[in-house]
Amino acid sequence: MAVLDLLPQCVSGVYLIYHDDFKEWSFGKISALREAALAVEGGYRYYYMDPETYHWDLLDTDLRRRLDVRKYVSLSCERRLGIDAPSTSTQNQSDISVNDNNKSVLSKNGSLFSKNMAGVMTAEEVESQIDLGAMRIKLGSDIAHLNELVGWSDSDILDPKSIKCLFGEFAATMGPNATRQMVIDWNQ
What we know:
The chain is of the alpha/beta class. It has helices spanning 27-41, 61-69, 75-81, 123-129, 163-174, 176-181, and strands spanning 2-6, 10-16, 46-48, 136-139, 142-145, 183-185.
């Protein structure tokens, strides 16, 4: 069983799980080749085997405990930061913190641009490839361009509390082509 993330510009191999009895068939290599072919056939720009490392991890008790308490687990990051697996599956994810510049690995603070996520455009790429001000938004029954909103020109794409950052992050995940064609319905 393979789990993939299909992002606007890339295919990212997340997990591949198969029974040990079949290791001689090299399913990892076969899966990587098929995923690379999917990326080419689907017109994606990139293919990542693992966005962080090329290390394969067993689905063991340690990993299961981590997955029981958190939706996303980066073993390479947790190893680097010295985060131990919870002793039981009942530990709450808010109980887990690390001392890496006083930030939690699970922190939701800050902009998406500060996360360096695979397949998500950087703020610089967004600013150079997408005219954010030309994005359309539906307000009530009217459709306006973002650059018509009060405060738009003074807003900073790197300020997580600004409207320009909010729409910049959205554009970064959708990519230039989709962003140019859509109207965001703010009424919902």
